[in-house]
Write a structure and sequence with these properties.
Elements lengths: L1 H8 L25 E3 L8 H4 L1 H10 L3 H4 L22 E5 L13 H4 L10 E4 L4 E14 L5 E3 L13 E3 L5 E7 L5 H15 L14 H4 L6 H11 L4 E6 L3 E4 L5 E5 L1 E10 L5 H12 L13
Length: about 300
């Protein structure tokens, strides 16, 4: 834990990742993107471990009727004792990295050979419950260089934001999100396997354990070339959001999303069940139940 947070605050002190070379990808030093996901655990949630922080979080969440654990529009708050419910609020502490950066200062050619999981903090996935992510800390010295990162091109009025381009990073900007609409989920499910095969991705991004769903496997991060391919081949363009310190981002159930930290960040995530999205949650739950018994995401459907 001490080694992790030393690297969280200083690029120079980051511990070496378990895998720094990919077979056949050519020699390069991959910069680590370590994260501590769902830090509050061991059978006890944030409410039990940090009650004062939990109360502060509940008071700070927007649309409290939906997002609070006791919200009147949060169906999970009416679940009977012993029923399955969304997980407790959890912390995700993760490093950030400038796009295309390498620990040894190398160029983009070898950086493009990275596994697509190595670019993102959270690979593309969809969840059965609604969620809100609150960015509570952004390390000023961790991650992207002070004058280069990603910003947004101005989109046509009423259209989703397009793929971001290089631009100055604002103070407090911490994470880059791509969020797809619920209506895009089925099309994503159908086109992602072909994109995986066409890109010649390695074993870590092939459907896991007999699964046929790259989206439910949460095994691929769509970098700029893949996002452009998705736009031209299927007409799918995500909403692009740069999340700054103090921003709360709501992700409806059934929406595919991915995250890449621009700087080292700590976020708190809380799940809830909005009445408007129950149908999407039930559909995904049934799809998760069709996964092989030992698939890591089967637990999400229990």
């Amino acid at each position: 834990m001490a080694d992790f947070f030393a690297g969280y605050a200083s690029n120079a002190r980051r511990p070496a990742p378990p895998r720094c070379r990919l077979a056949g990808a050519g020699p390069f030093a991959c910069e680590p993107l370590l994260k501590l996901a769902e830090v509050i655990g061991c059978g006890r949630g944030l409410k039990e471990e940090m009650p004062a922080h939990y109360d502060d979080l509940m008071a700070a969440l927007p649309f409290g009727a939906y997002t609070r654990a006791d919200g009147s529009m949060n169906l999970a708050s009416f679940a009977p004792a012993g029923a399955a419910a969304p997980p407790h609020p959890t912390l995700c502490c993760a490093y950030g990295r400038e796009e295309g950066a390498r620990a040894d200062g190398g160029g983009a050619e070898e950086a493009s050979a990275r596994e697509p999981t190595s670019a993102g903090t959270c690979s593309l996935r969809a969840d059965v419950a609604d969620a809100v992510s609150l960015l509570v800390h952004v390390e000023s010295g961790g991650g992207a260089a002070p004058h280069t990162a990603e910003s947004l091109d101005a989109p046509p009025e009423g259209a989703p934001l397009d793929v971001p381009r290089s631009a100055p990073l604002r103070e407090g900007d911490g994470a880059l999100w791509h969020v797809f609409s619920q209506q895009d989920s089925r099309l994503l499910q159908s086109v992602l396997p072909a994109m995986v095969r066409a890109r010649g991705l390695r074993d870590s991004c092939r459907p896991q354990l007999g699964s046929t769903s790259a989206l439910l496997d949460a095994c691929i991060y769509l970098d700029a070339p893949l996002l452009e391919q998705l736009r031209t081949a299927a007409g799918i363009v995500p909403y692009v959001v740069v999340q700054a310190l103090g921003d709360a981002l709501l992700i409806p159930a059934g929406c595919a999303y991915q995250v890449r930290n621009l700087r080292s960040c700590i976020a708190v995530s809380a799940s809830f069940v909005a009445p408007e999205h129950v149908g999407h949650g039930m559909r995904l739950t049934e799809e998760l139940r069709q996964l092989p018994p030992d698939h890591p995401r089967r637990a999400d459907a229990l």
